[in-house]
User: Fold this.
Amino acid sequence: MQTNLEQVTKIIRTLPLEDFNKVREVLDEEEQECKRIETDKKIGLEQRIEKFKKAEKWLSKNREKYMNQWVCLEGARLVAHGTDALEVHRKAKEAGIEIPFMEHIIDESLPFGGW
Assistant:
């Protein structure tokens, strides 16, 4: 049988003051931990966005030099490059990049020849 909120509330209300205060402390600690986790997630997201912006800037500056190649970037730092995507990915993993940001640089100035 699972305990529900109503049952827990009844139990808490019957506790002596000292135990009631301990329950409050535990709940306060849990709340602080939840807030810390949310803050860490937000900071992590902001850092990933900043790395992506730096990578975009790098790509716009260095596109011609790496035409028809795969590049792996960590922010504005070139980690690996080459024509074989799997090899570039392998090098990035060897360099300690957990989730490599890779881009295939192609000439996008040609017109689309579809129907």
About this structure: Residues 5-104 form one domain. The mean pLDDT is 90. The radius of gyration is 26 Å. The helical segments are 5-13, 17-62, 85-94.
